[in-house]
């Protein structure tokens, strides 16, 4: 079922967003740790109403997986031009767009991170790997079909792309820690943009003809 067809989408928008955001925050702790009591308390609704919309705790989680995937597909994946032959430019767009969406939807990205990093197996069991597979398929599409002739002759394009992604992931982890340590989001985002510009300048100099 598409999220727009789910019964919760028919209620007042402000109330719906409270429920969804409370659920995203709670499940970001981990599936086992997530408590429906905490969700209803933060959202300001009764447990009966939560179960009326979702049926079970599993139902809440499955809805969140679909909700996140549809939002990413609509606002994130569709915003990157997969036809750009320059893979570094494509990755730069992905990174900057992700940063902007992290600011707009922090609960969503915390949830996605937990899904990928979970080691207890519950996320995979509940979603039967479908959520991860859908997201991974989209990312694979975004990183395919680029012009490998842009790279220097002694550079392996696929290894170079992996190195760029690993470097950026390490940097993103450091930025996230700065945010957790209290750095203001606006200042953090501005520094992030400046650093990304510098990183990609170095990548181009090292890797491209």
What does this entry look like structurally?
With 209 residues, the protein is mainly α. The chain contains 10 helices and no strands. The protein has helices at residues 13-27, 36-43, 47-54, 57-76, 87-104, 106-117, 122-127, 130-142, 157-180, 185-207. Helix 1 packs antiparallel against helix 2 (36-43). The longest helix is centred in the C-terminal third of the chain and has 24 residues, at 157-180. The model has no long low-confidence stretch (mean pLDDT 83).
Provide the residue-averaged pLDDT: 83
Structural class: mainly alpha
Task: State the helix count.
Answer: 10
From the N-terminal CA to the C-terminal CA, the straight-line distance is 48 Å
Helix content: over 70%
Low-confidence stretches: none
Number of strands: 0
Major sheet size, sense and barrel closure: none
- Rg measurement, Å: 19 Å
Global outline: elongated
Element order: H for helix, E for strand: HHHHHHHHHH
Roughly what fraction of the amino acids lie in strands? under 5%
Descriptive tags:
single chain; 209 residues; mainly alpha; 70% helix; elongated
Indicate the topology.
Elements: H1 13-27, H2 36-43, H3 47-54, H4 57-76, H5 87-104, H6 106-117, H7 122-127, H8 130-142, H9 157-180, H10 185-207
Give a short synopsis of this structure.
The protein has 209 residues and is mainly alpha-helical.
């Amino acid at each position: 079922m598409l999220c727009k067809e789910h019964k919760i989408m028919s209620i007042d928008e402000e109330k719906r967003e409270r429920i969804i955001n409370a659920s995203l925050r709670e499940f970001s702790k981990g599936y086992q740790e997530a408590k429906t009591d905490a969700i209803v308390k933060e959202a300001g609704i009764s447990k009966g109403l939560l179960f009326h919309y979702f049926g079970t705790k599993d139902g809440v989680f499955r809805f969140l997986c679909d909700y996140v995937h549809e939002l990413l597909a609509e606002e994130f994946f569709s915003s990157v031009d997969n036809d750009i032959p320059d893979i570094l430019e494509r990755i730069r767009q992905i990174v900057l767009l992700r940063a902007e969406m992290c600011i707009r939807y922090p609960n969503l990205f915390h949830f996605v991170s937990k899904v990928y990093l979970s080691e207890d197996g519950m996320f995979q069991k509940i979603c039967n790997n479908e959520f991860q597979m859908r997201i991974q398929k989209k990312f694979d599409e975004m990183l395919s079909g680029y012009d490998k002739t842009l790279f220097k002759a002694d550079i392996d394009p696929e290894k170079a792309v992996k190195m760029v992604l690993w470097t950026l992931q390490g940097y993103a982890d450091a930025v996230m820690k700065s945010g957790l340590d209290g750095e203001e989001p606006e200042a953090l985002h501005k520094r992030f943009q400046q650093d990304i510009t510098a990183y990609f300048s170095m990548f181009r100099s090292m890797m491209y003809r």
